[in-house]
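Lecture 7 notes: from sequence to structure.

We start with a single chain of 350 residues. Read the sequence below before looking at the structure.
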Amino acid sequence: MEEEMKTTTPTPDVSASTSSSTSNVDIKALNEKIQKESAFVDLLTMEMGKVIIGQSHMTESLLIGLLSNGHILLEGVPGLAKTLAITTLSKTVDAKFSRVQFTPDLLPADVVGTMIYNQKQEAFTVKQGPIFANFVLADEINRAPAKVQSALLEAMQERQITIGEETFKLPEPFLVLATQNPVEQEGTYPLPEAQVDRFMLKVILDYPKKEEEKLIIRNSINGFPTPNSVITPEQITKARAVVKEVYMDEKIEQYIVDIVDATRNPENYNLQNYKNLITFGGSPRASINLALASKAYAFIKRRGYVIPEDVRAICHDVMRHRIGLSYEAEAENINSEEIINGILNNVEIP
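Now the structure, written as tokens:
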């Protein structure tokens, strides 16, 4: 997570839970419940750590997506274990996994399924595609044309697929985990804003540290251990319900709304110079995902309440793909990371 952001975060004030609007919230009891229900987080992290060396931020982000029912887009150069991390996560959960290798010649029917004529029955029957799984790995999603990318829209947002005249509910949990290579742009189709906005998190991966890379070499030569299944889909569904119970004070809600509003109206937050750098800001989906991800982050940290540090820790992953940059920003080599840093440094912390 963004370390430079954490240093400015004040100590959380749990006493805020005694405000008149939330006087019925028992933080102590909620903390005890979260401590009990989040025990599997350590097991999942440990099993994934058998295969994935380092990349703790990526592992944490995958857990946040899993717990808050949000899709994740992983971006990084080849060889950073993006695909391996997703397949490893699916092995730690006793659930159905499918992988779609996105290519320029892929068709929507190759993803969602199609109608096939059955000669014995003399009727058309539905052949479901690989999208009908708990974990769907959309490998190199930006290599498929727009028609295929749009086929994922209904699945990601509505959790259902329509084939012919029939509509099928997708299994629970349902998670699209997509990878993207930012280096090689030949033969790629950039994801449209509507598609990108449906990903809760966009996680940028970096190279491992030297010591971590030594372990990666050893494991690669000696063979990676096989992770064990430590949780069931039913347990994930139950954990998601508990995550929603994590207490969020009204001041934290206002903080989230202010951060998102600052991407739309930066001049209201002493960021007049950002006005010409941003073409569009975050939608209400950004506020919803920021709140859900903050609760999931607090759950992972074994805490029954959200503090400003939680919001700041996951803000970059939630917001970086929801800010439209102008030509002026690109000309000045200003990216969304810098804009988010500026917003976090100017929006008042509760």
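The chain has 15 helices and eleven strands. Keep this in mind for problem set 3.
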